[in-house]
Amino acid sequence: MADNDFPKPRLRVYLIRHGEVEFAEERRLNGHKDVRLSETGEAEMLEVAEALSHRAITAIYSSDLYRCKRGAEHLAEKTGLKVNLVPAIREIDFGEVEGLGWKEALEKMGGAPARMINWVDNRFPGGENLLEFRERVIPAYRKIIEQSSGEIAMFAHGGTNRMVLCEELGIDLKNFFTLDQGYACVNIIEYFTVGFKMIRLVNGHINCVPALGEI
Q1: Catalytic site includes residue 132
Q2: What is the C-alpha to C-alpha distance for residues 88 and 74, in angstroms, rounded to an integer?
Q3: Nearest residue to 208 via CA among 29, 79, 80, 16
Q4: What are the E-state strand segments in the chain?
Q5: CB neighbourhood size of 194 (10 A)
Q6: Residue 157: what pLDDT?
Q7: Dist. CA 68–CA 80, nearest whole Å
Q8: Which residue is catalytic, options 20, 44, 91, 151?
Q9: Strand, coil or helix: what is 46?
Q10: In angstroms, what CA-CA distances link 215 with 11, 55, 108, 192?
Q11: How many Å apart are CA 71 and CA 68, to the nearest integer?
Q12: Is 214 a catalytic residue?
């Protein structure tokens, strides 16, 4: 079979992490806290929107938190598409330690480092663990991809993106943090009518996108 005979995907998902947030250097657990983008983060989202505006985007989805919604709005302005807000793809709920830095959160949780790296067996006080997070994110993601075709953009969070990638790659949630998700990174997942899927890019830069062929 020649390369040009390979079946085209029915759906290509650009799964994007929001840009850098204010006070990013403090490494805070923002979770559902509605923080703003830094000046760098704003520029990153403009760059992403500009690159994706040259693709045949058919729909835009976003977490309803500002740091994701901002990038989605930039793309909407360039394409004329509306932004579909999906609260279910918000970041993990950090509960009582939301907004704290890692060191402060660790102290509040009793100083046990295992509780800060094993989010499967441990729940953030007043928040979620990874199993509960999965039950929220994955059904919402499945609904989106089942009703979509062509090329769609989804602006989400580091945790949300990791959850989707773990699901699609079959990675155990105890290895959740083996997947890096930098600010404004792009992941590309393609879905085919025969049930096959292909991960085209993980934690990549937006300038990798124009090299892709049309669906």
Answers
A1: no
A2: 21
A3: 16
A4: 11-17, 57-62, 83-85, 150-156, 186-191, 197-204
A5: 8
A6: 98
A7: 18
A8: 91
A9: helix
A10: 8, 10, 49, 11
A11: 6
A12: no
Domains of the chain: 7-93+129-211 (3.40.50.1240)
Q: How would you list the strands of the sheet with 57-62, edge to edge? A: 83-85, 57-62, 150-156, 11-17, 186-191, 197-204
Question: Tens digits of per-residue pLDDT, 37-62?
Answer: 999 999 999 999 999 999 999 999 99
- Residue 63, CB half-sphere, CA atoms under 13 Å: how many? 27
The DSSP code sequence of 105-164 is HHHHTTS-HHHHH-TTT---TTS--HHHHHHHHHHHHHHHHHS--EEEEEEE-HHHHHHH
Instruction: Please give the backbone phi and psi of residue 81, each rounded to the nearest 5 degrees, phi first.
Output: -85, 160
Report whether 81 contacts 104 (CB < 8 A).
no
Q: Where on the phi/psi map is residue 82: left (φ > 0), alpha (ψ -120 to 50), or beta? A: beta
Residue-level length of the chain: 215
Angle, helices 158-169 vs 130-146, to 10°: value is: 80
Q: Is 87 helix (H, G, I), strand (E, B) or coil?
A: helix
Average pLDDT, the chain: 93
Q: Please state, as a whole number, how many other Cβ atoms lie within 10 Å of the Cβ of residue 25.
A: 8
pLDDT at 125: 86
